[in-house]
């Protein structure tokens, strides 16, 4: 980090907070990249493995679709998602159900706002709760259940849902959404293509319980993975 910072001294005045680049800016950006990018994606994949162990029939249906469309030898590619509607629906339902950032992140109003009879002056801290959308009973038939059909129509085709907001909404939504979507699709499809995830022998009742960290993490220690 220090080496990278010194590289910019010739272009930006060191320590000048009026410039776009300074050491604190670099530090916070690096933390964002590793914290928001790495932890959120890895925890979502942990939820994916937990849910596939919990619902083996859904896992097998995903695997059947992957092997039918892609086969068992070629690795999945990003463009394959168009031909994998059920797999795509399962990934979206994992994101909805896992709800790994339930409280979202703190925002603030950039100008005075009147919202539903309330006056919010400029600079008011605002914390939009993603749980209220992802588990909204008016938007999802079974919000508390894991149900990939939330993203499928009667013909089994993938459908988008307006209430799907794991990356937040608006101009200040997740800057890494495109990358995260690609990573989740590739990692998840490759894992299911190559492995069968099953409950470890010493586990008698697999619970869908979350712990608390920077993001909501599933509370389980081990996953059984058998090479297909």
How is this structure best described in words?
This protein is an alpha+beta fold. The protein has 6 helices and 8 strands; from the N terminus they run H-H-H-H-E-E-E-E-H-H-E-E-E-E. The chain has helices spanning 2-7, 23-54, 56-69, 85-98, 131-134, 177-194, and strands spanning 107-108, 113-115, 118-120, 125-126, 195-198, 210-212, 216-218, 224-227. The chain has a two-stranded antiparallel ribbon with strand order 1-4. The protein has a two-stranded antiparallel sheet with strand order 2-3. Strands 5-8 form a two-stranded antiparallel sheet. It starts with a helix and ends with a strand.
How are the secondary structure elements laid out?
Elements: H1 2-7, H2 23-54, H3 56-69, H4 85-98, E1 107-108, E2 113-115, E3 118-120, E4 125-126, H5 131-134, H6 177-194, E5 195-198, E6 210-212, E7 216-218, E8 224-227
Antiparallel strand pairs: 1-4, 2-3, 5-8, 6-7
Instruction: Trace the largest sheet across and list its strands.
Output: 1-4
Give the strand tally: 8
- The residue fraction in helices comes out at 25-40%
Query: Approximately what portion of the residues adopt beta-strand conformation?
Result: 5-15%
Structural class: alpha+beta
Residue-averaged pLDDT: 84
- Determine the number of helices (DSSP H or I, runs of at least 4 residues): 6
Q: Oligomeric status of the shown chains?
A: single chain
Q: Can you tell me the overall shape?
A: globular
The separation of the N and C termini measures: 42 Å
Q: What can be said about the biggest beta sheet?
A: 2 strands, antiparallel
The Rg value, from CA coordinates, equals 21 Å
Low-pLDDT ranges: 1-14
Order of SSEs: HHHHEEEEHHEEEE
């Amino acid at each position: 980090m220090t080496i990278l910072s010194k590289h910019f001294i010739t272009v930006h005045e060191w320590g000048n907070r009026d410039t776009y680049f300074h050491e604190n800016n670099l530090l916070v950006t690096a933390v964002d990249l590793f914290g928001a990018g790495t932890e959120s994606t890895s925890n979502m994949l942990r939820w994916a493995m937990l849910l596939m162990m919990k619902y083996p029939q859904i896992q097998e249906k995903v695997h059947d679709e992957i092997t039918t469309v892609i086969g068992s030898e070629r690795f999945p590619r990003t463009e394959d998602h168009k031909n994998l509607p059920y797999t795509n629906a399962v990934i979206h339902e994992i994101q909805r159900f896992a709800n790994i950032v339930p409280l979202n992140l703190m925002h603030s109003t950039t100008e005075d706002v009147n919202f539903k009879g309330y006056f919010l002056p400029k600079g008011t801290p605002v914390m939009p709760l993603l749980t209220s959308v992802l588990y909204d009973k008016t938007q999802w038939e079974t919000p508390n259940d894991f149900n990939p059909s939330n993203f499928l129509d009667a013909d089994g085709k993938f459908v988008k849902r307006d209430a799907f907001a794991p990356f937040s909404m608006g101009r200040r939504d997740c800057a890494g959404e495109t990358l995260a979507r690609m990573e989740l699709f590739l990692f998840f499809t490759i894992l299911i293509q190559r492995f069968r995830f099953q409950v470890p022998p010493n586990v008698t009742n697999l619970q869908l319980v979350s712990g608390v960290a920077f993001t909501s993490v599933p509370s389980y220690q081990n996953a059984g993975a058998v090479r297909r």
